[in-house]
Write a structure and sequence with these properties.
four-stranded antiparallel sheet; alpha+beta; 229 residues; 6 helices
Amino acid sequence: MGSLGRLVAGVLLLAVLVGGAFLLAVRYVEHRVAPEPETIVSGSLQGLREQNRLSAFAARYVAVVTSKQQRFGVLSAERTLIMPGTVRYEVNLARLTQQDVRWDAATRTLSITLPPVELVGPQVDVNQVKAYDNGGLLLSLTDARQILDDANRKAGQTELLRQARDAVPMRLARDATRRAVERSFALPLRAAGVDATVVARFADDDRAPSRLDRSRSVKEVLGDAATAR
């Protein structure tokens, strides 16, 4: 091989070495700069826990209750109360642990098991409360009005909560909570360029994906990574 050939070969070899070194450098930087999904998830989990409580759904209900009282055998009184109130549906995010968050690397699926929904309230709109009665001596001459109003307010609170626990609003509240939590984890992953499916569920959900049985909690994954170092 002549001098020119050796020169060309040397240049080509140098180009290959430089190119390989460049690729290794890029991969090293990507590995060091781009966080692992588990790291992103752990940060999102900590942020949610610091929020303490999540209220993703609220609903307004109206209770209509009636109380009656009879005295002296012949006198009676009746009061009807119309009481509107708002109930919030919350989850205590402080109860979320790393064991509740599982990353399945094979399917790139993040699953979160949520604490149960709790009802907060009702918050009664006192300006909209209406009371009606049938008049009569018992209301005018005794404390029957106050007694009936107290009984109606207590019954109204119970009725508002009963309506709030119905299947339809509870399903809406759980769906809204799932979407809010999924979004809280999905957005940071997406911003970091991680393509992942996020599935939030409650412990009593019947729709639990079978693939979650193969997943591992973020705590387990991070623990293995720390051991490997």
